[in-house]
Amino acid sequence: MSPLTLSSASEQAVRVGLGRVLIVEDEALIRETIGLALAEVGFEILVAEDGLSALEMLGGTKNTTRRLVQDVDLVILDLMLPGMNGLDLCRLLRYQSIDVPILILSAKSTETDRVVGLEVGADDYLTKPFGMRELIARCRALLRRHRGVSEPDPDPVLRFEEVTLSPKECRVFLKDEEINLSPKEFRILELFMSQPKRVWSRDQIIDQVWGHDFMGDNKTVDVHIRWIREKLEADPSKPQYLKTVRGFGYRLG
Ligand code: CA
Questions:
Q1: I need a surface site. Which of 46, 150, 227, 249 has the fewest CB within 10 A?
Q2: How far is the CA of 2 from the centre of ligand 1 (A)?
Q3: How close is the Cα of 144 to the center of ligand 1, in Å?
Q4: φ, ψ for residue 144 (rounded to 5)?
Q5: Helix ranges restricted to H, the chain
Q6: pLDDT for 73-122, tens place per residue?
Q7: Distance between Cα 118 and ligand 1 center (Å)
Q8: Ligand 1 midpoint to CA 207 (Å)
Q9: What separation in Å is there between the alpha carbon of 78 and the centre of ligand 1?
Q10: What is the distance of C-alpha 173 from the center of its chain?
Q11: What is the pTM of this model?
């Protein structure tokens, strides 16, 4: 495997900009395999063959020359290294408040090793042998977490005409004015707003809002609808939102 392959793949990664990964591993074959797999999906790769050179690249030694220090977004760290082992390196980095995310690779798989690894400040731990897809997924997850980029939240707010309902915050607004609903009234309105224009029978509303163990009769639904109308409708006797569908039930709009 020529170093040229790796570096040209890395150049591509700069453009994609997934992040710069430092692989600290003394076994050349593993280093190259991981490096190529990560470069292929868009990471930029740096390598170190032992703990001390990794420490230098991360700016963790007192006599590090500026030239050696690299911008690194993620460290993949083998535990069994010549000289300074992975755990010591990890501990040293954290001691110096170098907070780059660290993923430990280890041939050991006991729970204790895992715990020790995480205790010295590693963020994740993968046991050899592992699949490349798993490694790539872990790297992506770590970077995402570290950068504080959360998956975009789908807008959870329900809207119908001038009514806005936020299931997350349990709040309802009519235009800009907040409407105070009881929990059951809220659940009923949420049900209607989840499917505007759909007709719901009283039994269906009871099933959805109260559940199967409801003990009252379905007049309860009518009472709650009346209460919601009083809070929501300009004229509760001529509802604009919660309409009665004779013989069937109720509908929003
Ligand atoms: Ca090793």
A1: 150
A2: 21
A3: 27
A4: -60, -45
A5: 3-16, 28-40, 51-57, 86-95, 111-119, 132-147, 183-194, 202-209, 219-232
A6: 999 999 999 999 999 999 999 998 898 999 999 887 677 777 888 888 99
A7: 18
A8: 60
A9: 6
A10: 29
A11: 0.54
CA of 147 to the centre of ligand 1 (A): 29
Q: How far is the CA of 8 from the centre of ligand 1 (A)?
A: 25
Would you state the pLDDT for residue 63? 63
Ligand 1 midpoint to CA 145 (Å): 27
Between CA 185 and CA 220 the distance in angstroms is 11
Dihedrals phi, psi of 22, to nearest 5 degrees = -100, 120
Same domain? For 19 and 75 the reply is yes
Pairing state between β 199-200 and 249-252: antiparallel
Which of the listed residues 116, 150, 184 is the one where a domain comes to its end? 150
Question: Tokens 């007049």 identify what position?
Answer: 219
Sheet of strand 242-245, all strands in order from the earlier edge strand to the far edge: 199-200, 249-252, 242-245
CATH at residue 236: 1.10.10.10
Say how far apart CA 155 and CA 131 lie, in whole Å.
35
- Exposed e or buried b per residue across 56-75, where buried means at least 16 C-beta atoms within 10 angstroms of its C-beta: bbbbbbeeeeeeeeeebbbb
Domain that holds residue 60: 2-150
Pairing verdict, β 163-166 and 158-160? antiparallel
